[in-house]
Design brief:
The structure holds two protein chains of two kinds. Chain A is of the alpha/beta class. Chain A has eleven helices and ten strands. In chain A, helix 4 packs antiparallel against helix 5. Chain B is mainly α. Classes of the chains: A alpha/beta, B mainly alpha.
Chain lengths: ~280, ~325
């Protein structure tokens, strides 16, 4: 089977500052990949490269077998970015209008069909914001707004859903709901790539996990991944971590991970293994 | 860096040729249809409409040929300018209209100069259209190769276009009244062929926006998501800026090069105060545009002051009222 994403030896730098080097990653269809890494480890950049939104300096990325840059089927991709767009603070646009944008790749220049409207209603319903549909988006709270963007990605009925820390600023109840929704979607066969700072939460839901800090440290099924030393190597070598703090709240300190959940993972770490 | 990312936005690379093919395939027949409409169909319709209006209400206001042409031109601008402005304003590109208008004025000056020498080419608005289109594409080129629609290129284009206009005028022999009508607008001085041109431009703008509204809205609201949906954002950027050039040239006769941007911006800004939806705002801004144009013409007629200026002042009054209503409604 053709993998959903196939990246080989991706290198990327902002000017003279290297961000990614030699990253190779394969995401199979129906995989639920949790991507973790310290702040500034290049997670967002990698995700954008994988989606064809940025061009790597070298290396290749294929989406469903086609080079990402010439992959034209926008209907197969859904994306929830880390920060909402600049325009949503000032522009008069309703939640429903935003969610409808998820159907634009399907519609092209024709009018939205009943099928499109049904997908929009369903996405609003699944994210629990039907009653907010006619509200102006900048009148919503951060969490509600984030659900609107998730609804937009859902409405696109994409085969590959990429989410970049979508639950930042979202209340605990909604986070719970959101993960249940992701599990459902994944069960339906949708490939998911999720960047998340809460390693413990991620471990409960993702089928595979990968750890990034400029280079990819490990990519494995969730259980073996957690048992490997990948997390401690990455978070141990992260810029802000004191080596002797690792056993305590290293994860909490660098990634805002909920330390309680993540503790078992790093308990037995004696000293960080230098990764870089 | 910025340049590379912006260039990367032109993907998918192969789609440009395909899109050019579609544009030519649809554009040429549509263009011919619009040409035939404004040459053969529109004039009898126009005569029938104003003839009927004049015989119903026999007042000078609707029976004078000057005012009939002025009203028609104004109503058309009150539709197209706010529609295109809605996308521009929400992308913080409001001043691009002003820059294009000033460049179009440079084109008018060149057109007047050439028209004085060669009477057969005495069609300054066509020169304005060419100048504005070239400026629009130039602006797009600069945006791709630098940091987007920054205010420095806009300021250079705005003053540069005007400088060319003034230089050409000072060199040639042109009646200052004619120049002033393009600078400040003169609704009583709209020849019928310019009304025809405006009808053509309005049909082009309306047709293109109707077909591409979703794409234009998407790139206005969230470029990155639009790129992910594999919408060619630079194609639609170029389309929007060229549409702006068309609207600006159409509006120049009524509002003048200096005041054109007001019609692109103010009705939209007013609508944004009282609505939460983009589509609702689009409709409302056209309504406000009509109020400004018709109110402006009537007030300027009653008080005997310049029409272009009055239209803009009425638009601002509408905006202030909308601001008040919006505050009360808590929008």
């Amino acid at each position: 089977m053709t993998p959903a994403i196939d990246a080989e030896n991706v290198r990327f730098a902002y000017g003279d500052t290297p961000v990614l080097s030699g990253v190779s990653l394969t995401v199979e269809e129906s995989e639920f990949l949790g991507l973790v890494g310290p702040n500034g480890s290049g997670k967002t950049t990698l995700l954008k490269i994988l989606l064809g939104l940025k061009t790597p300096d070298s290396g290749s990325v294929r989406l469903f077998g086609t080079p990402a840059r010439s992959f034209t089927d926008g209907t197969r991709l859904g994306y929830v970015s880390q920060q909402s767009s600049e325009a949503d603070a000032t522009m008069p646009v309703t939640v429903r209008e935003v969610v409808r944008m998820g159907r634009y790749a399907h519609a092209g220049i024709r009018r939205l069909s009943d099928e499109d409207r049904r997908a929009v209603d369903e996405a609003l319903d699944r994210t629990g914001i039907t009653d907010l549909a006619d509200r102006r988006i900048n009148r919503l709270s951060g969490g509600q707004k984030q659900r609107a963007y998730i609804a937009r990605a859902l409405a696109s009925e994409a085969d590959l859903l990429a989410l970049d820390e979508p639950t930042v600023g979202v209340d605990a109840d909604s986070v719970e709901r959101f993960y249940r929704l992701l599990d459902e979607l994944n069960d339906e066969g949708i490939t998911i790539v999720l960047i998340e700072h809460d390693v413990g939460l991620l471990a409960e839901h993702a089928t595979t996990m990968a750890c990034l800090d400029g280079e990819l440290y490990a990519h494995d099924e969730t259980r073996p991944f957690l048992e490997s030393d990948a997390l401690e190597r990455v978070f141990g070598s992260a810029r802000a971590v004191r080596a002797d703090a690792l056993g305590g709240d290293a994860l909490g300190g660098t990634t805002d991970a909920s330390a309680g959940d993540a503790d078992p993972i790093v308990e037995d770490a004696d000293a960080p293994v230098g990764g870089n | 860096m910025a340049t590379r990312d912006r260039l990367a936005e032109t993907f998918p690379p192969q789609s440009f040729a395909r899109r050019a093919g579609i544009v030519a395939g649809v554009g040429v027949p549509a263009g011919l249809a619009i040409m035939s409409f404004i040459v053969w169909v529109f004039p009898p319709l126009y005569d029938a409409f104003w003839g009927a209006t004049c015989s119903t209400a026999d007042v000078w206001l609707v029976c004078s040929g000057f005012l009939q042409r002025g009203f028609t031109a104004g109503i058309l601008i009150g539709i197209t300018a706010p529609v295109v402005g809605a996308y521009l304003v929400n992308r913080q590109m409001a001043l691009i209209g002003e820059a294009l208008a000033h460049t179009a004025f440079g084109g008018v000056a060149i057109g007047l100069f050439i028209g004085a020498a060669v009477p057969g080419l005495d069609y300054p608005l066509l020169f304005a259209l060419v100048a504005a289109a070239i400026a629009a594409l130039g602006m797009q080129w600069i945006a791709v190769n630098t940091d987007g629609y920054a205010d420095i290129p806009i300021a250079i284009m705005l003053t540069g276009g005007f400088a060319v206009g003034i230089a050409v005028i000072s060199y040639g022999v042109v009646f200052s009244a004619t120049v002033e009508s393009y600078l400040f607008g003169d609704i009583l001085f709209v020849p019928f062929r310019n009304v025809q041109l405006m009808v053509g431009l309005t049909l082009v703008v309306a047709g293109v926006v109707a077909a591409t509204h979703k794409q234009l809205l998407f790139i206005t609201f969230d470029r990155e998501a639009a790129r992910l949906a594999r919408i060619d954002v630079w194609f639609y950027d170029t389309l929007l800026i060229v549409l702006t050039a068309l609207v600006v040239v159409a509006a120049m006769q009524v509002l003048g090069a200096i005041l054109v941007a007001g019609m692109l911006v103010i009705p939209v800004a007013a609508a944004m105060q009282v609505t939460g939806s983009f589509n609702g705002g689009l409709v409302l801004s056209v309504v406000f545009g009509q109020v400004a144009v018709l109110g402006g013409i009537l007030v300027s007629y009653a008080l005997n002051i310049a029409t272009g200026a009055t239209i803009i002042l009425v638009a601002i009054a509408v905006y202030l009222l909308a601001l008040l209503v919006g505050t009360v409604l808590g929008r």
